[in-house]
Design goal:
The protein is about 45% helix and about 20% strand. The chain has ten helices and seven strands.
Length: about 240
């Protein structure tokens, strides 16, 4: 993808999420049948975090995963970063209402504004379908996590079984646009959702991309008829120069 095309896609994604930021949470709860927070909890279990570590949540959106991480691990140092200021405004409001103090930063997932090896774990939820370069996004996450640290990706996937694909398509091409229109007066952003899932990488291909980014021991677990997948990878530990 050319630099111009990449910048065009970033602007389009920022505009889309700016438009739906205030209704993002309620629509997510409805179209996931109330399961999206549970999926985030499972992703955090895969992180194997501890209270003494540092976690970066990339494309944090309205901050659900970052805030949940702090609730589960009260002493964990959590940083949330996102490309869209309107989404971070919602995260900040939720954090204040919960009396949870977290740093929120604006950062491009393809060029994270953090030093190498500076986090014990990196997470992302429903991010990768929206970036113009998935390999670069994982390479950046692998760069900022320490050797031996984990990168966990929670993402949607189009089921491979025929009946599951049919059921998923029937639901996703009807419910999100309809409810999105009722909740926000706009259905176009929610038409984008099923299209982006259907065209996205299958779990095996996504795992291969993580390996190419420098992660190993890559595994995944599927939920909700295979429509939600949690990938986990570990950053390789470089051998000692004296070895």
């Amino acid at each position: 993808m050319s630099v111009k095309a990449e910048q065009t896609q970033k602007r389009a994604i920022r505009a889309l999420f700016t438009r739906i930021a205030k209704r993002y949470d309620i629509v997510n709860r409805v179209i996931s049948l109330g399961q999206d927070q549970r999926w985030r909890e499972v992703a955090l279990i895969a992180v194997a975090a501890s209270d003494s570590g540092r976690l970066l949540d990339v494309a944090t959106g309205t901050g659900d995963l970052a805030l949940l991480a702090r609730r589960l691990y009260p002493e964990l140092q959590v940083v949330g970063t996102d490309l869209t200021p309107a989404m971070l405004e919602q995260a900040q409001q939720k954090a204040r209402a919960s009396e949870i103090g977290l740093p929120w930063t604006i950062s491009d997932g393809l060029a994270l504004a953090f030093a190498d090896d500076s986090f014990d774990a990196v997470t992302s939820a429903f991010m990768m379908r929206n970036v113009p370069d998935v390999a670069q996004a994982f390479a950046e996450q692998a760069r900022v996590v320490r050797p031996g640290g984990r990168v966990v990706c929670l993402e949607m996937s189009w089921p491979r079984h025929f009946l599951k694909r049919w059921l998923f398509g029937l639901y996703f091409f009807i419910v999100p646009p309809l409810f999105g229109f009722l909740a926000s007066g706009a259905h176009a952003p929610y038409r984008y959702l099923p299209r982006s899932v259907r065209s996205f990488l299958e779990p095996g291909a996504l795992a291969d991309t993580m390996v190419q980014a420098g992660l190993h021991n890559v595994t995944w677990q599927a939920r909700m008829l295979g429509s939600v997948v949690i990938h986990t990878g570990v950053k390789s530990i470089s051998p000692s120069p004296n070895a």
